[in-house]
Amino acid sequence: MRLSCLLPTGLLLATALSTPALAQRIVEPGQPAQPSPRVAVPTVIHAGKLMTEPGKPVLTQATLVTRDGKIESVRKGYLSPAELGLPATAPVIDLTSKFVLPGFMDLHVHITGSGMLSRQGGFAMREEDAFFALNGAANASVTLQAGFTTIRDLGAPNGAIFALRDAISFGLVPGPKIIAAGQGISPTNGHGDSHNLKSAFLDAEALSNPNVCDGADDCRRATRNQIKLGADVIKVHVTGGVLDPSDAGTEQQFTDEELKAIADAGHSMGRKVTTHAHGKAGIDAAIRAGYDSIEHAMWADEESLRLAKAHGTYIIPTVWPISYVGTTPEQVMKGPMRNLNPNSLAKLFKLGDQPKKMVRLAIRIGNKIALGTDSGIAPHGTNAQEMLEYVDAGMTNVEALKTGTVNAAEAAGLKDRGRLDPGMAADVIALDADPVADISAVMHVDFVMRDGIVFKQAGKEVKE
User: Fold this and answer.
1) Which strands sit side by side in the sheet containing 233-237, from one edge to the other?
2) Residue 130 near residue 160, CB atoms below 8 Å
3) Which among 239, 356, 380, 397 has the fewest CB atoms less than 10 Å away?
4) What is the Cα–Cα distance from 218 to 110, expressed in whole angstroms?
5) How many CB atoms lie within 10 A of CB 352?
6) Strands 177-180 and 233-237
7) For residues 222 and 228, what is the distance between their CA atoms, to the nearest angstrom?
8) Helix, strand or coil for residue 252?
9) CA distance linking residue 244 with residue 242, whole number of Å
């Protein structure tokens, strides 16, 4: 008897999604074969140069073995499947002319949005979550092809991002591993709330966004509820932001008590808690409240950064989109954000090149920095430009590589990624040139493997 005869439709779907072996398409006799998710197979990689972790010695003429989506071993020399005890049919990937290293990680993206997509043409008011999930799938593929095998999405409709995260995990669509926050936590009229709409629209938005909260108890409720709905990480709008159309500015908007309640609620349920924070007061308050990282930190001064260093708080600078958008009014008005509302333009003009000054100061002070780009403002797939920004601000090439590998893994709490050691996820990329010698090499990715599955080889996307 068929499984579908024994189980109700909903239970059948839930069982299939919870059991990878059942995630294959169920096909009736006589029907055409249906595409199935790709799975990892034992693979041998011959690496001309191999950096298992930025900062450690680079190996030459090495063999990397992957099995079941993880790194099985790292060996000297170019060994054959037979020498490794693998079937003769095991794929052997020739990267002998390439520089091989761990897949990159970006801890601040908005994968379901493209540029100003969600703010132009009424998309946010017209389209359902499914539209943004489909847009996110296209952006995720581009991001993966650029060598980013893990991303942390810090702001998207719950129904879009959680579905996309799970679809990638089950191999239904290609993309990086996603750590998803979903909708952020915001105070009333804060950065994550709606603005400048007639009251009927504002009331409707309020009903659809339970993450707008006021008071410590209400903020605990919102945090716990977001975890219940599927959040891997909690994103908090501690201050106002540039891109919201409010005239409330970019300073602290949650109270200290509310911030502490959110952090405690998130941590008590095993989640990292991070914050959108522009103004100094909000940055300092979030650090004191025990937040794990500060996103943007635009107006952090020396006192703020030394406080972050003392607390072990990660700074995630998002500098690349500032260069992309422009640092002067003249550049901004010729760029992609020239049509922003007047309130946002005023905040953007005030911001100027402050993020670049901040990251230079953070490097000098010795803050812990992890890579984040706010991609969705700058184009998806250009994420590696952030490393070039860090080198321009004073990092060494190796330090910049760390921000997008081991540092990002630590900041996100991902113990199985960021390095190519046995037992770690088989997230492997290859560059055409040596990034230790020239950091711009990170912009030229020739090969991408995520969780032991090859998605790019010889510079071309692998679809099957």
Assistant:
1) 233-237, 272-277, 293-296, 314-316
2) yes
3) 356
4) 26
5) 17
6) unpaired
7) 10
8) strand
9) 6
Across-strand partners of 430? 100, 447
Q: Over 143-173, what HEC string results?
A: HHHCCEEEEEECCCCHHHHHHHHHHHHCCCC
Nearest-CA neighbor of 414 among 363, 370, 455, 384?
A: 370
309 near 326, Cβ under 8 Å? no
Q: How large is the angle between the packed helices 302-311 and 354-365, nearest 10 degrees?
A: 50
Residue 440 gets which letter from DSSP? G
Tokens of 352: 């100027």
Residue among 303, 275, 271 at smallest CA distance from 289: 275
Alpha-carbon 193 to chain mean position: 22
How far does CA 47 lie from the centroid of its chain?
Answer: 27
Q: Are 71 and 65 in contact (CB under 8 A)?
A: yes
CA distance 48 to 94: 9
Integer angstrom CA distances of residue 288 from 163, 317, 324, 344, 421: 34, 19, 32, 28, 35
Phi and psi torsions of 220, nearest 5°: -60, -45
Q: What is the pLDDT of residues 144-195, one digit of tens each?
A: 999 999 999 999 999 999 999 999 999 999 999 999 999 999 998 777 666 5
Paired residues of 234 in beta bridges:
273
